[in-house]
Amino acid sequence: MDAHELGERVPSSTPPEADEDSNTRQFSLTPADRGAPLAIPLVSRYPQYRKLMIWLGWPLCLLGLVAGSFAQTLEVLILTQGVLYGLGFITFYYPILSMVNEWWIDRRGLAYAIMCSASGFSGAVMPFVTQALLDRYGYATTLRAIAAGLLVVTGPLIPMLRGRLPEAAVSSHPRTDWTFVRSTRFWIYSLSNVAMGLGYFFPSLYLPSYAVSNGLNPTQGALLLAVMSVSQALGLFCFGYMSDRRIPVDVLTITSPLVAAVAVYTCWGLASTLPVMLVFAMVYGFFGSGYTATWARIGTSISSDPIAAFTAFGTLNLGKGLGNVLTGPIGGALVGSDTVAGAYGAVKYQKVVLFTGSCMLLSGATILLYRAKDLKLATLVSRLSKQDSH
């Protein structure tokens, strides 16, 4: 499952022509996320072909990395490490997720969180490994080496993947029930999720350069990303666990972005020293990532039908993926030209900080206001009922 995330650690290893294009850094994740609403209903309807999908998608991922190593232009890189890798991941990942759904029901939030947190722990190591390979061998050899590593590590595990139900019990299922899209709750969560996705990726993209702008060295910038990755893994695990422990999903999805917003406005915006940036990396990584761990329970809160709930999970992937692909162009428009070390946002990143915090704030406030409206309505109905009884 972590193969895709390992591949995602490599986008900075781009050909010279693509080095300055921030859009490249986000592109390979996007096809996988945008394809979720199409892939999940297909996998759910034809679960008997999941093993075949896995065996088709896995080599496509590896081929995307190897083919990308020969890229000399941005267009070729997008087609290989972006489109080809993304299509391979769609075909590989969602059948596995469908199998996980069969094994984990009461603890599904925790199961999803464990899968996602694995990428966080790899993210604490892979930036250093990748950078060392890039410095010594260049981007082409680095991509081929990572593809070979994934072949060796993941290949032997694929035959072990299987669903809980026997093949005879997982023949074609009915079509996906899309009536959940008429639910107000679905659209509230979708709006909140898109807002989260629009702001979530900026710290991991700009924190290293922000650190350098405040006088830190590149190694310390890489350290901040490593600390954030570990915190993200812990946040995913904890929020996934709490979502299964009957803590209302609304409480978790309000807490996650609002605490992250406070961290952005204060710790990131005011940070000019390594200790403060480390605090930001830990707090933002933990609470910001926790939102994703609630997706499984958001799906089940929207629809009681397992296939529809899984599809709702896919639409949340889509929302965050759209935010991810927009990070590059939005960030390019927000980053300033003047740097003043010690100033709020180092001046150069001031708009990035404010935009990120505002997205987090909007994400949490959307659900908070929705729940407050429901609570007010419930209170009014209760009072009217008491008056009628008298």
Automatic annotation (TrEMBL):
Membrane topology: Multi-pass membrane protein
GO molecular function: transmembrane transporter activity
Keyword presence, Membrane: yes
Superkingdom assignment: Eukaryota
Subcellular location: Membrane
Membrane spanning residue stretches: 52-71, 77-97, 109-133, 145-165, 186-202, 222-242, 254-287, 352-370
Database matches in InterPro entries: MFS, MFS_trans_sf, Proton-linked_MCT
Keyword Thylakoid: no
Matching Pfam families: MFS_1
Region (Disordered): 1-30
Swiss-Prot/TrEMBL keywords: Membrane, Transmembrane, Transmembrane helix
Gene3D superfamilies associated with the record: MFS general substrate transporter like domains
GO cellular component: membrane
Family membership noted in the UniProt record: Belongs to the major facilitator superfamily. Monocarboxylate porter (TC 2.A.1.13) family.
Protein name in the entry: Major facilitator superfamily (MFS) profile domain-containing protein
Organism (species): Peltaster fructicola
